[in-house]
Design a protein that fits this description.
188 residues; mainly beta; Jelly Rolls; 6-stranded antiparallel β-sheet; RmlC-like_jellyroll; HgmA_C; homogentisate 1,2-dioxygenase activity; homogentisate 1,2-dioxygenase; iron
Length: 188
């Protein structure tokens, strides 16, 4: 069964939830943790912006790409992951957003699989994740050149206050012990 938007915009990732631990928190609609997948799919909406839009969430996202391509950020390759904690502004990079046009033709995304963990709590990367694997230029993908009012606003002050990072997989590094991988549950 295929589930996706057929009318407008980008669907909320919650339609791809595979597993969920419901939250007893103050915020209705949030979860302790959701596991979401973005499998092969058709994008068929017309006269709208198909990539994920620039936004903020009440949940924290840890997203990664297992294989294939990702439609909202150039250079986000298999093995990459990103963290967007609560209320951190994020969305497609400037090149994707400015160059995105929808001529009404359906697009098929196949040979790709991305995942996301969403949590009511903040993700706290370990020192290793914030070390040599961190992409210090990640925030630059939203910076405008001043010619576009929307990108001047999005790419300046708002993004500068967000806590975002990309962790790149480096196949040349030796494996680390599982308790030293991306996140330390004792720090959350």
């Amino acid at each position: 069964m295929a589930i996706n938007t057929v009318t407008y915009d980008h669907p909320d990732p919650s339609i791809g939830v595979v597993l969920q631990s419901p939250s007893l928190s103050y915020a209705p609609g949030t979860a302790n943790i959701d596991f979401v997948i973005f499998p092969p799919r058709w994008l068929t909406s017309e006269n709208t912006f198909r990539p994920p839009w620039f936004h903020r969430n009440v949940m924290s996202e840890f997203m990664g790409l297992l294989y294939g391509g990702y439609d909202a950020k150039q250079g986000f390759e298999p093995g990459c992951s990103s963290i967007h904690n609560k209320l951190s502004p994020h969305g497609p990079d400037r090149a994707t957003a400015v160059g995105s046009s929808n001529d009404g033709q359906p697009e098929r995304y196949h040979g790709t699989l991305a995942f996301m963990w969403e949590s009511d709590e903040a993700w706290i990367p370990t020192e290793q994740a914030l070390g040599v694997l961190k992409d210090d230029t990640y925030i630059d993908c939203w910076v405008g050149d001043g010619s576009d009012e929307q990108w001047g606003r999005w790419g300046g002050l708002e993004v500068a206050v967000g806590s975002v990072s990309v962790i790149r997989f480096d196949p040349t590094r030796r494996p680390v012990h599982p308790d030293r991988l991306a996140f330390d549950p004792n720090q959350v």
